[in-house]
Each structure stands twice: as C-alpha cells, then as structure tokens.
Amino acid sequence: MASASKPQIGVETETLRRTGKLRPARQLRSQRSLERIIEALDELLETKTFEEITVSEVCKQAGVAVGTFYDRVGNKDALLEHLRARVYAGIVAQIDQAFARERFVDLELRELLGINAREMVEMHRARRGAIRAIIVEARRSAAFAAHARELNAALMQRVTAVWLSKRADFRPGNAQLLVRSAFLMAAGFLRETVIWGDLWPGETNPDRVGADLEHMLTTFLLPAEDAGLSD
Amino acid sequence: MASASKPQIGVETETLRRTGKLRPARQLRSQRSLERIIEALDELLETKTFEEITVSEVCKQAGVAVGTFYDRVGNKDALLEHLRARVYAGIVAQIDQAFARERFVDLELRELLGINAREMVEMHRARRGAIRAIIVEARRSAAFAAHARELNAALMQRVTAVWLSKRADFRPGNAQLLVRSAFLMAAGFLRETVIWGDLWPGETNPDRVGADLEHMLTTFLLPAEDAGLSD
C-alpha cells in the first residue's frame, strides 16, 4: 500500500505530510501546557478561592507565558471548565473502582459501610479545593449545574447500587428511599465537614468524620439490633 | 422644659425643627422602599438564581423606580447584603424560639429530636431561595464568609445546647463531639435535600426528609437499645 500511494505524492500532499510530522510534537507541547495550567489552578485552589486567583498567578505557578494561557485556554471561566471535566472524570473512575460490587461480595453490609465511609472521606479530602470551586460554580451557572446533576446522578446510582446489593441486611422500609436518604446524609456531612469545615466552629478530624459517617450509615440502614458498634 | 427652651429657638433651630418634622415621613417612605426592594429580591430568588436576577426586575417586582433603587441600595451586591442581614436576623430569632430550653424540660431526647427535625425542615423550606443565594455568596466573598461563620457558630451553639441538656440519654462517647457531628449531618442533609434538592436525582418529599432526619439523629445520638423507632 505504501509503494502504491507513493507515486501520487505531490507538493500539497508532501506539505501535509511535513506538517503532519510536526503537528504531533507541537500538539504534545500544547497539551502539556494545558495540563500544567489546569494543575496549577488545582494547586492554587488548595489555599485560595477561585475568585481570588488571577490568570497571572496561574501562569506563574504553571511556568507558562500569559500569551500561552490565552492561546490555549481563553479565560478563567474556561479554565474552571477544564478543571471540572478533569476532576469529574477522576471522581467517576475512582468511584467505579471503590464501589465495584466484586469488592464486597463476601462482606456484610456493616463491614462494607465502614470501608465506604473512610474511602469517601479520603476522596473528598484529596480534591477539596477543586470541589469547592466547582460546587460554587454549579450553583451559579446553568451549564455547570447540568454537569453537576449528571455527576450526582451517576455517583448516587453507583453507591446506592452497592448498598442495595446487601438489602437483605436493611431495616424494614422502602429500600430505595432508605439508600437515597443515607447517601444524601453522607454527601451533606462530607461537604459540611471536609469541604466547608472552615465555615463551622470546632476542628474537623478526618478519622472522626470517617468513624461518625460509618456509625450514621450503619444505624440509619440496619435494624437497631444489628447496628450496635463497638464504641 | 419645653417652655424653658422655647425662647432660644432661632431661625436655624426652626429649620432643624421643620426638617425634623419632615424627615420622619421621608425616612419612613424611604425605609418602606428599601423593605419592598429586599422583599422583591427574596421573592424572585424562589424561582431564579441571584446571577439571573436583574436590578430592573427587582424594581418592577418592588414597584419602585430604578432611580430609587440606586439611591437607597447602591448596587445588586449591596442588596444581597441587606437580604443577608434580614434573613440572618430572622433565623436567629426563630432558632431562639425553636430551641428555647424551656420548651423541652419535660420531654425525652427522642421526643425532642422529632420536634427539632420537623421544625428544621420547615425553617429551611421557608427561606430556600434566600439561603441558596447567601450560601453561594458566603463561599465566594470573605465578608459573607465571616458573617456565615458567625451565624453557623450561633446556630450550632443553640441547637447543641438543647441536645446536650439531655446528655443523660446519649450513647457512650464524647458528648460534645457527638452533638457536633449530629448537627453537621443534619445541616448537610437539609442543604442537600431542601436547599439543593434539584441537583440530585429523585423527589425530595419534606415529610420524608423530616422523618429520615429524626431517625438519623435518634440512632446517632441514642444507644441502639433506646433508639428503636416505630418504622
């Protein structure tokens, strides 16, 4: 095939081939700049709000020229959308692993809830700054809200599916409604403690959050006689 | 006294008295315009986000001229600050009543938690739009965050004080840490269901939220053998 097509190569095709050869390297550099810029925003969000961060700070942190930023990203809002897409993809991948049903086939509901509780705390802690910025934007912009709704539905579906796989251990009641409320309690508690803990008085100790979340999920989903924990 | 001061009234004092007579009426009209403008924002927030609402919409809803708005309020952000101050004052007054210890002296912890749960749902429902706008702003602006921190501390103090007055009914553990976590679980659940319910799949039935909140608080704070509810 290569020899059959070769005689037809003219000047235009040759140019395309040459730019084709060059493009991957340029695209790769460009892609790396974008990655570094997104990474820089993610890092800055650990200590500042999105409002407080300037484009020039992001560029300095990323080690890219401001011109590169405007070329590759456009503006600050577009950068937050890049970060959102990256963070959401990371969360979905991690949830798929953490809530894979195969992990829990041999466990009882209360053992499973203990593992889930601690892993959920860790997932929030690891992305605290980015999640703060994305939640705020999801509550201001309709486009972000639509993405948030989609992610929320996917997360609730995956987490509650694992819990429902142990519904034989549940207290009496509508199992679908029980897991929905349990999930929203967990999500709300994690947000107020791990994500927005600085807006509440007192210290937020992550081990404590994990243990309390486990206790809450266990006592909410299991019958009183089975929920008794060791504390 | 009135007759003793009368002879001293000169032209300037007379002018002051006259403007003094006029001022109350003008001030009252002005105060009423401001109240109507704040009220209008509050109403519009039931169906729209703060970002989506324009000054001219607020004025139309309030029945005031746009000029009056700029005279009395200044700008949209200043209006949100007025609404925040009003909503916070209302919340504190309502919490002071709802969590007055005298209400609960003859009740057991589980009865008290049932009443608290339902009243907390209602307090959130009644101010849903305003709370949405204020939460978003508290997470963007340092000034709003400082106010939110102050309110959060006051609310947590009042609510947990009532729960701690029944600490004899608690499960074993550090009572201060137990009520802090219970309060944050309740706050988080109420926010995700009543305030931001539209970002999650499924219907949010307020009666269900109240019953689930009661169950969660009861099973989280009481020993397993005492927590058993009727469902």
UniProtKB/TrEMBL annotation, chains A, B:
Keyword DNA-binding: yes
Signal peptide boundaries: none
DNA-binding stretch(es), residue numbering of this chain: 54-73
GO molecular function: DNA binding
PROSITE patterns, A to Z: HTH_TETR_2 (PS50977)
Keywords per UniProt: DNA-binding
Superkingdom to which the source organism belongs: Bacteria
Domain HTH tetR-type: 31-91
InterPro entries: Homeodomain-like_sf, HTH-type_Tx_Regulator, HTH_TetR
PANTHER family documented for this protein: ACREF/ENVCD OPERON REPRESSOR-RELATED, ACREF_ENVCD OPERON REPRESSOR-RELATED
This protein's name: Bacterial regulatory protein, tetR family
Organism: Enhygromyxa salina
